Each structure stands twice: as structure tokens, then as C-alpha cells.
Amino acid sequence: MKNKITKNNLITYGIVLAFYIIVEILMMTGVLSSHMKGLLVPMTYYAIIAVALNLCVGILGELSIGHCGFMCIGAFTSAFFSRATENSIPTVPRFIMAFIIGIAFAALFGFLIGIPVLRLKGDYLAIVTLAFGEIIKNVCAAVFLGKDSKGFHISLKDQAALNLEDSGEMIIKGPLGITGLSFTVSFTACVILVLITLIIVLNLVNSRTGRAVMAIRDNRIAAEATGINVTKYKMLAFTISAALAGVAGVLYASSLSTLASSSKNFGYNMSIMILVYVVLGGIGNIRGSVIATVILVLLPEKLRFLSNYRMLIYAVVLIAMMLINWSPSARAKRDVLLSKINIFKKKTDEKEVQ
Fold it and tell me: CA nearest 53: which of 318, 61, 118?
């Protein structure tokens, strides 16, 4: 059993590495267009937040539609630190420190929000997490923050209310967000972070803690009766999920010159899109989340030559993937096919032994 789990994990890591090598070869040979190159980094942070959400939805069994809020926190805290210390700390140490700060704040907010939210179940929990995500996005869009010789000044009214000195500098400009950011992240670094995220989540799922979390998901009363601390494990899984969403936020902020807390970037539609990645990849299937994200990020651009029919075909592909993954008849046929493949492998192994 342990060897099978290890093999499955290695296959997941191998798929990511193989994709990275293929992309690098395509870039070196000049096959990839500049626009496709621009999608590589977004693809990685969407994959990370999809894995984070799958940990919450698939493994913990709690439907959250507010993970873009944690992504927003990770993005803004890391970007604020980078912008505030750009003249005093070198680029690489500053990025590492901003990375840690973004994750820490996302995890902290995940813990604080999890205290009231995880008392709810089902649709109620989904609605409350959606509300928290919207609150976080709107607060970030309302903050004006500047720095001068007297220190930091903050206001929720407007820039004039900060009363900055003439030599002062605006860092967060309300709806305009944080400007003047530098591109500090590469595709290679993003792939490494995707692999680290997969290692953390897959090892968590296959550990004693992960089995306890899944026992709570399957039957909370039975899990509690066997002595599992339900609150502890739910908070742990939710906090880790929020922290990983913060990782995606840090990468998002590091790939932009201007970071704004808009509905397009961190709103309800984006949260639903991340949930679509999770559902199409398979709820509880970590590898599937990564594959579905890559396909659904690249597909609209690959279909761009179809002009007006592009999004129609994209919708058809979504429906087809949903039917293949979740239709009872399709799943039954897939199970039969897999059983035949396993039988063929066993016969081949027996012949080799003889």
C-alpha cells in the first residue's frame, strides 16, 4: 500500500517535471509565442491555489468560495513589504522575506476566519466564505497607505487624509492598488513552488493527520467517537489551505507591475473559476487539479484563432470534461478499462517470472 502511494506521488511529480522540460525545450527552440510565455507563470499560481482549494473541498470536505480572499492577502502583504523596503533590502532577500510574510498573513487570516466559519456546514459555509472573500477584497481596495519620515500613515477615506510630507511616498493607492512593482519571479521558480506545494499536500493527505481529516469528512460523528479532535484537524487543514492560497498570491503579485484589488483579480468569478479547476480535475484528486488548471488556462488561448466561437468551444469542452469525470456510466466504463489494463499487466508480469 505504501509503495503504491509513493509510486502515485512520484508519477504526479514526474508529470510536472516532464511538462516543465517540454516547455523549456519549446522556449529554447522558439516555438512558444510571447503571449504563451506570458501564461506560464499565471498557470503555476492558478495550479497552486487549485491544489489549496482541493485540500479544503476534496480532502476536508468543506466547500469554500473565498480562497481568492486569502490569495489577495498574500499578494498585498508581500507586495506592500517589497514596495516599502525596495531601497533598503536587495532583491533576492526581499522576495524571500515577502514570500514568508505573505504566507504567514494568509495562514493567520485562514486561522482567524476558520474559527467561526468551520462551525457551519454545506451551503452556509460556502456563503460565509464567499462573504469573507469579498470583504477582504473590498477592504484592500479601500486602503490608502503612505510613508514619510514620521512613519506609515493609513486612511480609508482618500489620499489627502494621510497628510504626507512633500517627500512622502504613496504605497497603497486605494482602488489603484500598489504600483511600481518589479517582476521578480521566473517560470522555473514557480514550477519549484508547485512541486513543493504538491509534496506538502500529498504527504499531508497520506499521513496520519490526512487520514484523520478524511475520516472527519466521511463521518464526523464516527471520527469524534474514535477520539479524533475534529476542531483541531479541521482548523489545521483549513489554515494550510489558506497558507498555500497565500503562496499563489505572492507569485501573482510578483508577476505584475501594478497590483489592484479588483473583482476581476480576486472577486467571486475568480473564486468560481478556481472551483471549476478543482471539480473538473476531480474533487479530492490533487494531480487532477494541476492537469485541469493547465488545460483550462491554455485552452482559451489555443482557441483564439476561432474568434467568436472560441468561448463556445471552451464551454463545450468544460461540459465534456464534466461528463467524462462525473457521469456514472462514463466512470463505470473507465473502471472497466482500468481493470482490464491491470489484468493485462499481471499476466505480463507472470510471463516474465516464468
Answer: 61
